[in-house]
Amino acid sequence: MHYNAPFFGLFENIFKLIKDDFGEEKAIEYFSKLMAVGLSKSYGSNFEKGDPNSFKNLVSERDLAVGLRVEFPIVSENEIVYRFLDDPFPNLRGLIKYDSLESCYMQFKVDYLLGDNWTYTTEMHIWDGDEYIQHRITKNS
Questions:
Q1: 0.85 cut: is pTM over it?
Q2: Taking the CB of residue 80, how many other CB atoms lie within 10 A of it?
Q3: d(CA 36, CA 51)
Q4: CB distance 8 to 89 below 8 Å
Q5: For the segment 18-68, what is each residue's pLDDT rounded down to a tens digit?
Q6: How far apart are CA 103 and CA 44, in angstroms?
Q7: If 133 and its partner were Cys, which of 32, 82, 84, 109 is the partner (CB 3.0–4.6 Å)?
Q8: Which residues contact 119 (CB under 8 A, 6 or more apart)?
Q9: Which domains does the chain have, with CATH numbers?
Q10: What would the 3-class secondary structure string for the chain be?
C-alpha cells in the first residue's frame, strides 16, 4: 500500500463512529469541518489564492507528506486535472457515496486555495472500477 493507511484509517474511524451514532448527514458535516481545520493548518496562508500552480504545489506537497500519490496532468490558467492514484478512504466504500465523501475535502481545497470562482467535478473514481480518482477543477467565467 502506498498511502499512509493508519493516518487515513483514523479519519475513516471517526466518520464511521459519527455516522453510527448520529447518521450520515452529521458524519458528513463533521468530517467536512475536520478536513477544513486540518487542511487549512497544513496549507497555511503563504500562497497565492487562485493560482493554479500554487494549488498544484501545495496540494502535491501535502499529499506526498501523507503518502498519497497524485498527478496533475493539466494545470492551466482556467483548468486543473487532479488525479489520485491511491484511494485515501477505501474502508468507507459502501458506507457513503463517493461524491458525498469527496465533497468533504475537495470543496474546501478548491475554495480555500483557489476561491469560490472555481468548481470541481469528479470524472473518474476507483470505486467505479476506474484506475484512479480524477477531479477536473475549472474556473468559472
A1: yes
A2: 24
A3: 19
A4: yes
A5: 999 999 999 999 999 999 999 999 999 989 999 999 999 999 999 999 989
A6: 20
A7: 84
A8: 110, 137, 138, 140
A9: 5-139 (3.30.1380.20)
A10: CCCCHHHHHHHHHHHHHHHHHHCHHHHHHHHHHHHHHHHHHHHCCCCCCCCHHHHHHHHHHHHHHCCCCEEEEEECCCEEEEEECCCCCHHHECCECHHHHHHHHHHHHHHHHHCCCEEEEEEECHHHCCCCEEEEEEECC
C-alpha cell read off for 79:
483548468
Place of cell 458535516: 29
**Which amino acid is residue 105, in one-letter code?**
Y
Do residues 35 and 108 lie in contact, with contact meaning Cβ atoms separated by under 8 Å? Answer: yes
